Amino acid sequence: MADGMDRNAPIGVFDSGIGGLTVAREIMRQMPDENIVYFGDTARVPYGNKSKATILRFSRQIVSFLRTKQVKAIVIACNTASAHALEAIEKEQDIPVLGVIKAGAYTAARATANGRIGVIATRGTIDSGVYEQVLRDLNPGFQIFGKACPLFVPLVEEGLTHDFITEEIARRYVKDLQYKGIDTLILGCTHYPLLRTLLRKVMGEEVALVNPAYETAVELKALLTQKGLCHAPRMLSGAEEGLGAPASYRFYVSDLAAQFQEFANSILPYDVAGTEQIDIEEYGGSH
Questions:
Q1: CATH number, residue 270
Q2: Residue 204 structural domain
Q3: Which of 56, 73, 78, 194 does the annotation list as catalytic?
Q4: Is the model's pTM score more than 0.70?
Q5: Looking at the structure, do residues 226 and 93 belong to the same domain, yes or no?
């Protein structure tokens, strides 16, 4: 076990808004004993059109907040923040810090047969070139084709995940990627797994869809196991002896708590009892 670290402490998860809930959902499914503290920066979303310096400042503020909750690990459940802030945050923290990009890239590298990989994401993630960089480090022969899909996030947040308008926009976005002959597509924004069914229809069965939210939860579980930081098995006493006690999930946002909670309840496997709004600017963002 890591020195002085409480294995029963929560996992901190943060995103620029609500998309990171897809990562939290996968952690809940794969590690039901783990407690989670989630922060969504709903006052300052989106991150995709902000500078690297601004994203790093925001990320440091959020990490400062999560550390007040005594988290044992932090997952940056945002592709844009993973691209621009993960490296710096990792160096500054003494607990495990994961992003969502490497796990997805590694999975795509294993999945592709022809070495032609597509990435759909926000403008910020595509412009950063981070997926291309990680994939080329794995295999310089890979051909990477990126496509920014800026309308997907608002469509998902409006609940239009199965709407014909969303399908038509998706067909326009991915048409170029289909012409490139990709056999693997990375869903490079945490909102996009909620469009998986629609994207499967548009892309066809022959293209592998990579969900970094799922792969990040797999990576987190392996990392916590390696470091001896997995939560102790939960047991209840008395009549319910032998049944797992419920994990604790706490949600914080920087704005629009009611809207966040409504969306969370629509995609998480249990009802969110409450969401607390905090002033994230109170937490240090410089280093």
A1: 3.40.50.1860
A2: 101-212
A3: 78
A4: yes
A5: yes
Per-residue pLDDT of the chain (287 residues; tens, 9 = 90+): 445 678 999 999 999 989 999 999 999 999 999 999 999 999 998 887 788 899 999 999 999 999 999 999 999 999 989 989 999 999 999 999 999 999 999 999 999 999 999 999 988 889 889 999 999 999 999 999 999 999 998 899 888 999 999 999 999 999 999 999 999 999 999 999 999 999 999 999 999 999 999 999 999 999 999 999 998 886 654 444 444 557 899 999 999 999 999 999 989 988 888 899 999 999 976 55
Last residue of some domain: 163, 187, 212?
A: 212
230 is catalytic: no
Tell me: do 108 and 232 sit in the same domain. Answer: no
Q: Which of 22, 14, 12, 131 is CA-nearest to residue 74?
A: 12
Distance CA 40, CA 254 (A): 7
